[in-house]
């Protein structure tokens, strides 16, 4: 258990999306977690489970007019980001907290060079910084992500670079202001396996050098096993299990966690048939009552559809929200 003060503390966060005057969709419900300095927190779940909405909420990047936050606090170094004005929040975005998105082509402006966009990040947060100093800082950031000929990259436009190069540039851009927290929303999904491994190694190296904390969102358990110190499993807009990464893989207690692990080819995979989780993630309109996994779970009973279970402690640092975690088979 980490007894240091958390860098980030999300407490009882709920997020709603208003579709029209009558329709309110509950995207995230009562999510709480902490991130400590220098730690990598993995958030895992299938598409539509609320991972990205949760992390976009940290910097309030969800569509402002359609988004409501009925409950929750997001404390960054003790300051509540939910209570900040847009101007105060702008001072933290990119400087104290940076984000790496899944698709860099939509995150970068195709009309401006890489250099212009990177230097703008520094200029926004330090207007007194001389242009030559900003240029050198950007070159240094590009060198750190192992891109050759950084001077040429600074003059290049995003569409002239490969997917792997663009993602490295996005990481360089996110790290150039030396943030304390880096939020990565499936940053390796669109990359081939070789480039993905290089990007993961790079992020681990940058974390060790700068002491940056990382929130890493993914649906890939293989990536999580390499990157994370702790893991949150999300389903239906809720956290259903939290544990240290080794504990989660060896002693999963929620049926959804077990299903994810059994459906993923591990290092000893020999071509044998993988198990699959029946059904699919329900839409926000069709989310079942109680535990959102109950309509896909082989152990579900009436209690599961009546109420979402309380979090219970499995061991130090390992909690689970499941009515039947004590009686479901542990090793199948």
Tell me the major beta sheet: 8 strands, mixed
Low-confidence spans: pLDDT under 50, at least 5 residues? none
Please identify the oligomeric state: single chain
Compute the separation of the termini in Å: 29 Å
Rg, nearest Å? 21 Å
Supply the CATH architecture of the domain at 8-235. 3-Layer(aba) Sandwich
Structural class by secondary-structure content? alpha/beta
**Lateral arrangement of strands in the main beta sheet:** 6-7-8-3-9-10-12-11
Principal-axes geometry comes out as: globular
Give the helix proportion (percent range). Answer: 25-40%
Say which CATH homologous superfamily of the domain at 8-235 is assigned: P-loop containing nucleotide triphosphate hydrolases
Number of E-state strands: 12
Kindly report the average pLDDT value: 89
The CATH class assignment of the domain at 8-235 is Alpha Beta
CATH topology of the domain at 8-235: Rossmann fold
Strand content: 15-25%
Number of helices: 12
Helix/strand order, N-terminal first: EEEHEEHEHHHHHEHEHEEHHHEE
């Amino acid at each position: 258990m980490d007894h240091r003060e958390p860098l980030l503390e999300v407490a009882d966060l709920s997020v709603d999306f208003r579709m029209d005057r009558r329709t309110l969709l509950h995207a995230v419900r009562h999510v709480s977690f902490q991130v400590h300095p220098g730690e990598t927190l993995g958030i895992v779940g299938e598409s539509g489970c609320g991972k990205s909405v949760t992390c976009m909420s940290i910097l309030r990047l969800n569509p402002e007019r359609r988004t409501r936050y009925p409950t929750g606090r997001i404390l960054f170094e003790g300051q509540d980001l939910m209570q900040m004005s847009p101007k105060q929040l702008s001072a933290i975005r990119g400087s104290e907290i940076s984000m790496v998105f899944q698709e860099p082509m939509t995150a970068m402006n195709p009309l401006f060079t890489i250099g212009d966009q990177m230097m703008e990040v520094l200029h926004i947060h330090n207007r007194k910084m001389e242009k030559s100093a900003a240029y050198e800082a950007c070159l240094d950031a590009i060198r750190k992500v192992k891109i050759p000929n950084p001077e040429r990259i600074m003059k290049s436009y995003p569409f002239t670079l490969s997917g792997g190069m663009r993602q490295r540039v996005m990481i360089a851009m996110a790290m150039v202001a030396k943030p304390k927290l880096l939020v990565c929303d499936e940053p390796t999904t669109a990359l081939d396996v070789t480039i993905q491994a290089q990007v993961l190694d790079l992020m681990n190296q940058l974390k060790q050098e700068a002491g940056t904390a990382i929130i890493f969102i993914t649906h890939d358990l293989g990536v999580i096993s390499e990157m994370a110190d702790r893991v949150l499993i999300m389903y239906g807009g809720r956290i259903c299990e939290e544990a240290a990464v080794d504990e989660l893989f060896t002693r999963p207690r929620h049926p959804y966690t077990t299903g994810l692990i059994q459906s993923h080819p591990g290092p000893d995979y020999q071509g044998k048939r993988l198990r699959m989780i029946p059904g699919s993630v329900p839409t926000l309109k069709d989310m079942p009552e109680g535990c959102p996994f109950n309509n896909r779970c082989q152990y579900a009973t009436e209690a599961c559809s009546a109420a979402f279970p309380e979090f219970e402690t499995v061991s130090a640092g390992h909690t689970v929200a499941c009515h039947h975690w004590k009686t479901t088979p542990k090793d199948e």
